[in-house]
């Protein structure tokens, strides 16, 4: 009997393969970074061929570390940075252009034109999303408009669109030799092209965005007993293994956190920061700047939906301090640097590098640092950068409470930044509720593994998966209410200083 399930987790800055046992414990991991490409201000790209190459190396590395035989792997799940857009030739396997990353803002004019007199909520009633540079649909339109010959290739059926999950599954299942062109409902729900209620591509929106339907992948459940496809004998897994789990990274983390009940929420601290609240089989429209999205769909069961608050820059701000300002040599150093000061010294760092996402949706915003005096030094910069993540999370939580009427009693957290003890304590202080870190904090990969394992019976039901979840640490909010009153009020004031920076 197969002993493990594998997950490929292709994120914004790196790809890894993680292998899990039946208890949901990681038994092997191999992770490799890929380049961040910035050809113009506001543009962010990745090389899809580099991501595919790094994926293959990550898989072979994880298998070698474990010493696993091909038959030891029961199934494979894939999870991915969601809205990042790839278009490639089905006959050659070559991308027509670098991947346009979710943070990229080049589609601002396209979004404004599509909004027209109806405004940014033109399609929201169907897709749960405002028109924004964040989502895949406008990125596809930009590529069709700007890559010579692409629109004609798309009409012929030679050009395929996919988010990174689709690109990897196509390559893993054969590529130009019969690769399967699929995505799941969660990733499809982030394109602005899928009707939430029908879980199908919407012809009216495709017509409005001038996107040929032939480009688009088939939409499948997140956990599919019918199997998307199988890896190749001569591929990186070295065997014919079913690929049957696929989730966007934030939905995968929600599954990995076992947030299967209505009202359960999690927050993932990665490149960006993403809070999801399970709303069950009900599609809940947001009136306070949140996104309505698909949370997951298991087999032939009804889809489960969520409210999401998306923050563009969280861990990426620490990376910026490291790579651009060179205040630190490695990301973990930011905590020690921040601990050299008792507070932020009066400065607030609003990292609207790509505009503001939830709850503002202001593409005209750009980052600011306010409150500078000669007293400020590098320790205050580090502390203000960490506090920015906590304050942004508070804004999302407030919006979620307004939309759902549910007062959160505790917040489950995961992602790379949850090892930062100073940040987690400040987060509890700003929210006024306990913050809970699970034993397995890398829940994105775990959620993809759960989806795949559920499809083949490795886990029988969600109760088995829920039983694997356990607490590693809880941070209780302090009695000092300044972080959630005075400091938060100053943060809100700082946010207003980012508005209207980009004109026209």
UniProtKB/TrEMBL annotation:
GO BP terms: glycerol catabolic process; glycerol-3-phosphate metabolic process
KW Kinase (keyword) present: yes
GO CC, one annotated term: cytosol
Residues involved in glycerol binding: 82-83, 134, 249-250
Pathway: Polyol metabolism; glycerol degradation via glycerol kinase pathway; sn-glycerol 3-phosphate from glycerol: step 1/1
Domain Carbohydrate kinase FGGY C-terminal: 266-455
Residues that coordinate or bind ADP: 12, 16, 271, 315, 416, 420
Regulation: Inhibited by fructose 1,6-bisphosphate (FBP).
Protein name (database record): Glycerol kinase
Organism: Caldilinea aerophila
Organism lineage string: Bacteria, Bacillati, Chloroflexota, Caldilineae, Caldilineales
């Amino acid at each position: 009997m197969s002993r493990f399930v594998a997950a490929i987790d292709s994120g914004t800055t790196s790809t890894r393969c993680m292998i899990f046992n039946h208890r949901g414990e990681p038994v092997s991991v191999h992770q490799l970074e890929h380049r961040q490409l910035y050809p113009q201000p506001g543009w962010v790209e990745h090389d899809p061929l580099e991501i595919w190459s790094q994926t293959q190396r990550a898989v072979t590395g994880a298998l070698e570390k474990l010493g696993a035989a091909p038959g030891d792997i029961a199934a494979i799940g894939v999870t991915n940075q969601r809205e990042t857009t790839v278009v490639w030739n089905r006959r050659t396997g070559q991308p027509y252009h670098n991947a346009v990353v979710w943070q990229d803002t080049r589609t601002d004019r396209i979004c404004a034109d599509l909004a027209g007199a109806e405004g940014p909520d033109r399609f929201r009633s169907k897709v749960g999303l405002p028109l924004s540079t964040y989502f895949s649909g406008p990125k596809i339109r930009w590529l069709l408009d700007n890559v010579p010959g692409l629109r004609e290739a798309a009409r012929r059926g030679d050009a395929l669109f996919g988010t990174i999950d689709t690109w990897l599954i196509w390559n893993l299942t054969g590529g130009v030799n019969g690769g399967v062109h699929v995505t799941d409902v969660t990733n499809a729900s982030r394109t602005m092209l899928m009707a939430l209620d029908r879980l199908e591509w919407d012809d009216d929106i495709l017509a409005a965005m001038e996107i040929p339907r032939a480009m688009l992948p088939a939409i499948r459940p997140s956990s599919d007993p019918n199997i998307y496809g199988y890896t190749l004998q001569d591929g990186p897994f070295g065997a014919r293994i079913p690929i049957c789990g696929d989730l966007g990274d934030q939905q995968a983390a929600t599954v990995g956190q076992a947030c299967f009940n209505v009202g359960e929420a999690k927050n993932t601290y990665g490149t960006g920061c993403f809070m999801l609240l399970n709303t069950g089989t009900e599609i809940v429209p947001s009136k306070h700047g949140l996104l309505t999205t698909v949370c997951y769909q298991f087999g032939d069961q009804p889809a489960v939906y969520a409210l999401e608050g998306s923050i563009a820059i969280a861990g990426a701000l620490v990376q910026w301090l490291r790579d651009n300002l060179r205040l630190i040599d490695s990301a973990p150093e930011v905590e020690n640097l921040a601990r050299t000061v008792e507070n932020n010294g009066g400065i607030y760092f609003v990292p609207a590098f790509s505009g503001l996402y939830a709850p503002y949706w202001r593409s005209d915003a750009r980052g600011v640092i306010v409150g500078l005096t000669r007293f400020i030094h590098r320790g205050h910069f580090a502390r203000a950068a960490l506090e920015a993540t906590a304050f942004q999370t508070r804004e999302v939580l407030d919006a979620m409470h307004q939309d759902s009427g549910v007062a959160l009693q505790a917040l489950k957290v995961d992602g790379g930044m949850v090892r930062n003890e100073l940040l987690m304590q400040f987060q509890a202080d700003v929210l006024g509720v306990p913050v809970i870190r699970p034993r397995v904090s890398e829940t994105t990969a775990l959620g993809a593994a759960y989806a795949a394992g559920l499809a083949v019976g490795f886990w029988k039901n969600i109760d088995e998966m829920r039983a694997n979840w356990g607490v590693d640490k809880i941070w209780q909010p302090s009695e000092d209410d300044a972080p959630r009153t005075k400091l938060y009020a100053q943060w809100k004031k700082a946010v207003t200083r980012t508005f209207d920076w980009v004109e026209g």
